[in-house]
Amino acid sequence: MPGQAPKLYSIKKTTVAFAVASVFLLISLVWMVLQDSTREWKGWQRKFMELSRQKASAELEAAGKAVDTAKLAELTKQIEAARTQSKAHSDEITRVKKEIAKADVDTLKARAHYQDLKQFQDSDRYFLEEYRAHHEDEQAKAYEALLAHRGPEFSKAKADLESLEAAREGLQAKLEKFTGAEETARREAAKLTQAKTLLEKKVKKLTFDWMQMILNAPMLDFIRPSLQIQQIVLENLYDDYYFNKTQKVDRCVTCHLGIDQKGFEDAPQPFRTHPRPELFLAADSPHPLEEIGCTVCHGGSGHSASFVTAAHTPRDKKQAEAWEKKYHWHPMKHWSEKMLPLNHAEASCAKCHAGQAEMPEAPKLSQGRKLAETFGCFACHKVDGFERWKVGPNLKHVQSKLEQDWIIRWLQNPKEFRPSTKMPRIFHLRNTSDPGSASKNDAAIAAIAAYLMKNSEPIALDNPPAAGDPQKGEALVKELGCLGCHSAAGVSANHHGPELSGLGSKVKAEWLYTWLKDPKRYHTETRMPSLRLSDEEASHITSYLLSLRNEKFESIELPHVKPEVVEQMALNFMTTTKRQVEAKAELEKMSEEDRLEYLGGKMIGQQGCFGCHDIKGFENAKQIGTELSEEGSKDVEKLFFGFVPLEHTRQSWFFQKLKEPRIFDDGKELPYFEKLRMPQFDFTDEQADALVTFLLSLQKTVIPEAMQNRLDLREQQIEAGRLIVAQFHCQGCHTLDGKVGAVREIFEDKGKAPPILTGEGKKVQSPWLYKFLSGPTTIRPWLTYRMPTFGFDHAKLTELVQYFNNLDQVPPAFVHEGVVPSTEEELQSGGKLFQMFQCIKCHKSNPEPGLSASFLAPDLAVARERLRPDWVLEWLKDPQTLQEGTMMPTFFSEGQSPVPDIFEGDAAKQIKAIRDYLWIFNPEAVSSGAPSAKGTQTPASAASSSATA
Amino acid sequence: MIEAFKHGVNAFCNPTSIFSAAVALFALMMAFPAFFVSTPAALVLAFLTLGFFGVGLTDEHFRTIVTTPDNVPIVGMLFIFGYFTWFALRKAVENDKRIAAGQPTLEKAEAEEKVMVFPYLIYIEFVAALFYSIILVLWSIFLKAPLEDTANPSISPNPSKAPWYFLGLQEMLVYYDPWIAGVLLPTFIILGLCAIPYIDNDPKTSGFYSFKERRRGIILFLFGFWILWVLLIIIGTFLRGPNWNFFGPFETWDVHKLVPLMNVNLSDYVFVKTLGMGLPKAWYLREMPGFILLTLYFWLPVTLLRRTVFKKYYESLGATRYVIYMILFLTMFSLPIKMYLRWAFNLKYIVAIPEFFFNI
Prior knowledge:
The complex is a heterodimer.
Chain A: H1 11-37, H2 40-66, H3 69-87, H4 90-133, H5 137-192, H6 194-206, H7 210-215, E1 232-240, E2 245-250, E3 280-281, E4 287-288, H8 289-292, H9 295-298, H10 317-327, H11 349-352, H12 363-374, H13 377-380, H14 404-412, H15 414-417, H16 435-454, H17 470-480, H18 509-517, H19 519-522, H20 535-546, H21 551-554, H22 563-574, H23 580-589, H24 592-607, H25 650-659, H26 685-696, H27 713-728, H28 760-763, H29 766-774, H30 794-807, H31 824-836, H32 839-842, H33 863-866, H34 869-877, H35 879-882, H36 907-918, H37 923-927, H38 939-948
Parallel strand pairs in A: 3-4
Antiparallel strand pairs in A: 1-2
Helix pairs in contact in A: 2-6, 3-5, 4-5, 12-26, 14-16, 16-22, 16-24, 17-20, 18-20, 22-23, 22-24, 25-26, 27-30, 29-30, 31-36, 34-36
Chain B: H1 2-12, H2 15-31, H3 33-36, H4 39-57, H5 60-67, H6 72-100, H7 106-111, H8 117-142, H9 167-172, H10 178-199, H11 215-239, H12 266-274, H13 283-286, H14 288-307, H15 311-317, H16 319-345, E1 352-353, E2 358-359
Antiparallel strand pairs in B: 1-2
Helix pairs in contact in B: 2-11, 10-16, 14-16, 15-16
């Protein structure tokens, strides 16, 4: 039939087509299988095997060298000798071995017989019990008979087995008599080479042989492949796929094989050991690999087992190029949770460690947070968990402080006046530099200045009593403690407050004088404390600060403001709520000055000046910036890149925004009021980078609460205290909480530097500390620096006292601790020792002349109010352990008293006596030569007065 | 040169010109089928299409869109559709010639030779299945599954596109309300396709292809298939970008592209622009012009054509079938008409009753 229809059917054609199809199908199938089984991670696992093998080989070589060859040789000799010895008894040995073999067979049979019988006995006993319980007596009886019948046979089987076993043991002992020495020597030798043998096995296991090749072959690799995907399943962590939460699975360890193993610290990636295993990954570290995994901190796709799909993110362009070459890397398009580049990895710390002001192990994130606070990011941007506070000065009474012209010059470019200022530049930036915008900028600046002046409430100012002496003023600035916050007079140890330069070109004399005397009068919320200056001191400092001028700034020409521009801008604001005609009519009615003020108010609202400054009329204004609470996980598509050729990642956008905030307006046609408003802070690259880390850390919490680092009450109180310490810059002067006081570096004689506060919580009594912080009194009369009066309220004072107590693990309790000398003898000896050790020589309110500051010590008159009794004991015992480098002599070195005749030289008793004496000590009595303190206070009354304190 | 070509193509590409050009080309093909089915014409057409793709692939954007794993089959489908349409028309034209010359049709000539299904046909089918398997295996090797990001209910992909076979419907949504584009028209398409053998039960050309004898049927069907279905799929797949904006094939899909939207309802045209009075308060008065227009559209052609052009046809069909035929016919053509009204007059809705969400 095919022959009849050649047009419809041709054997040849069909067969050829079939042949071609079969060949191609085979090829494509093989291709498919190969493609499917060739995986990136298999290559890495092979490479790691090779690397481990090399490492093990090297270790093996070292182990080989480490073997005690002399001892080994001796043991070999011993083995040889033992062998020759046993050869003499070879017949005997053969005979015994044969007997053992026979005995083994017999025992085996006997044991089998015994076990069979035991099975029957157990089974019969079960039935017997069952039937008896069901009162089926006949059956029960039958089983009872069976058991009884088998009983003797069973006991005999057991006895037989035991005797056979005993015989077997005897034979073994006989054999060992001949071969024991050899065996012992052999065991010794094996112990000697044990490490080597283990390594040999390891190397063999790591060598890729044909057996492994078969087990890893495509299609066969389901049996027991040596190359396998490795994964960590995290019990308490979940991946959120929006409709479904799945347990987090991290397969990173499939390639990062050496990540938790020691010895790969210098291996090439991906095999390198994780840095700082004591902090990360180790089972006993705070972040064990099995519980935390990888992607929680690093981000990326944990399920993926290839370089690209794991969503690795390069640190910079250079790395990106290197990766493109090496791994064919490209950014993962369809995976929003990309890995954090390593330089921003600290951002993830915030996922669990929220609520901590500073994280010492995450310096970059801490720096970023601090910068965000310092530069007032939260003034415009709402961020959950961060308090909004006014970074800039209060402007409600600005008229008494500044001239209008100064404000205009300042707003043009604040850095012209003071390069170190935190105030960003707001006008005349990249997107407002065209001539049209420039004239609008000038009008806006003039308008803001006019508004501020008009809306400033007058404040009562004092005049300096007499013209001060600038030189004395400069000396006072250096001596009194201004440098604890400000950099001034050529010294810059601190940058907490504004740099004190050019003030003569800025502020009015009465204002400065009043401000120095009582900062809170001008601004109740100010952080500037009072140094309790006398009128004279204040006027000296005033005249010094006013002598500093910035002439270049003063000579800046004031821009000419065109009234029509002001009108145009005012109209623009007015038409948002009114019709054009009405707005125009209303503007007509206004004077030029009123228009300027109106525009100023609107501009302040538009630019958000009130975010940092208190300004009248803006008490309840809302922040103008975007909320940043979840900025770190914001969809990249929602960031506006405009026409800026920039990598489409969050970090590159953040960085660009921080460095040049207005750049995204490039190439856009926008009306003046719709342009980007974020001001120019002139961050350095390093600052911007730290801020990027901070921004990336702002993410929605996905970690279950139980896994987060929850602060307990003590830690919370410490954190609250740290916040105050940072705000009021205690560490500008004092060494505290692990940070060295910044001003210490400018003191040559460290004895004159403000005291070190490490251990203060243990040292001083809480009620005293509370009182001292609310109103400082002199403790160390030789110090020129003054502890300022900060004017803390009750809440802050309490928090600070709790902070100090908690830092030293002392339970915070506002109870005065008193001491009652127990015996008259104790009291007497206390006074004696006090004289003997000449305590008063250094510890007094008016120090003896000739002693250098390092030898001066706090006035003991206040000790009983101030110090904790237990601390005094510790202190007297060994001052150096409490405060290294202190000039306080160690009288009781190594627990030995130098005075043998009091309390028979018992150091502990003597120390207690001195301490108790301190609590009734009266300095006047001592200086007048009276040996006893009895006249001033009896022990009992001292105790009772303490208890009421 | 190539840049100029791309710019030219992009400038030409807007819904109006593409649609009009396609209609014009279709009309030419139907007017001169013999020319289009000739081998040289086919070669030129194939060369032009392939050349366009060849040049296009040098463009990054075009390449991304065309080689996206979801879109590759659509490209393949276009060529396959083209080929089969051409092949069937070619046979039809050949048969017309043969009938004119008094020769038997191709199908008749072929029918005289016969082979058994088993083993001959089965064998060929088996070989075809092998080739199919090869294609599928190679496909799976070269094109990875087009998986995207995990579905996030708070972020919808932009553009959000239906599966390719629904892109024609999605394109209709630009011009019609969902209840028409998504419910009424698809129902009519299915019912209409089912109704074809009952409306046209003329056994005249049974068993062979012919163009001359079945001109009306072929033109109607191919217009519906190629212009109102495949062309809309092409537009929806390749030319609709973010925010369902229209983009030329060599234009980058910019999310921020803004085009003016200024569509106006018929009632505004009548009462505001023409009569200069306000819109009537009651919806039935306000939408009266639209209702009148619709009534005229579905009534006038039926009665007029019955007496003129379709007189003979009406007689052969009878009243019922004629009315059904005309309703389907008019509904089908309402789509291009509405499209042109939108393009020419920015007409939004003919009837717009937001009071109870009824728009036409």
